[in-house]
Amino acid sequence: MKIAFVVQRYGQDVLGGAELLCRLVAERLGAAGHDVAVYTTCAKDYITWKNEFSAGETILNGVKVKRFKVERTRDIDSFNKHSDWIFSHDHTEKDEWEWLERQGPCVPDLLEALEREENDHDLFIFVTYLYYTTYWGLKRIKGKKALVPTAHDEPPLYLGIMKELFSLPHGFMFNTESERKLLGRLFSFEGKFQDIAGVGVEIPESLDRASFCRKYDLTSPFILYAGRIEPGKGCQELVDYFLRSSPMNPDLSLVLIGKLLMDLPVHPKIKYIGFLSPEEKNVAMASADVTIHPSHLESLCMAALESLAVKTPILVQEAANPLKDHCLRGQCGLFYSNAEEFEAALRLLLGDSRLSRILGEKGFAYVQENYAWPRVIGKYERLFRHLTAARKPE
Description:
single chain, alpha/beta, Rossmann fold, 2 domains, 6-stranded parallel β-sheet, 16% strand
């Protein structure tokens, strides 16, 4: 089949859970024999939407990538002020369209290409509900289209224009049952195809923990955070909770990997070791006693699944319902909502090796059952069969 994805950013070095999900699924579908294209922008950074990639068509890991220039960069401070206003005041639909324009990325050329080239594809899959490319792109495509919302409970979901947006796709691929229930309370999916797919996780075959720890001068026990290191991901709260608990766990270190977007305190037990390759990230997770996932807003959290794939238990922020659901459904980790619970959960996980081993083993089984690639791709194949078998709109 000829499948087209539409996503706001795309690339090997583009950071972001939704963008990574899109790339991994697109590449797997391409490897399965489908003709896959991705319509995206020249932006790498979601804060500014600055054009950094060249416009035009390229091939990345077997997938055709069509890039279009963003019309204008974003002033994040001005956008945040507008967001604060629109989420706290009565406003019109025109105000919401202006919010979406400021949110971006504003790429009229991409929308024109979708309209012009629609008949070249059997089905369009839009990734992430939140952006200009999805709202206006869904309105341009008249044929079969699906949405991977990657949504969590946040103010934009409650804008009036979102009712229209969620009425447009013919099918939905959710990341978790928690996300499906959240959206089901806000929008009607009657008569629409629905499934929970998430993203596949590789199960590493060999992990040289000893060499990795020597290379980065790491000693047990340590807990690990992997991802964008910024307050919006809960990292400031994580650092605060760790420092508060440190006197009770003087031998414990907090290790962080990923892109550093905030200042970290100078502390002998807080170690930032940079941005690692996927292979080294797997070893880092396998070497950790626990991985920490402090974000309050997640729709899936691939880092948590990657941790479970190497049998390392997870400790997550309870406010993120999908993360809490992983712990409960997989019986593979604990959750906290404040500093006292964070400290108590760490004490339990670090002090009971049998419990940690059981949680790790159950997490491994949970990932194999729910997030193995053949299972995920099989769900997308069912989506394709369902939508293309249905009668096309008049």
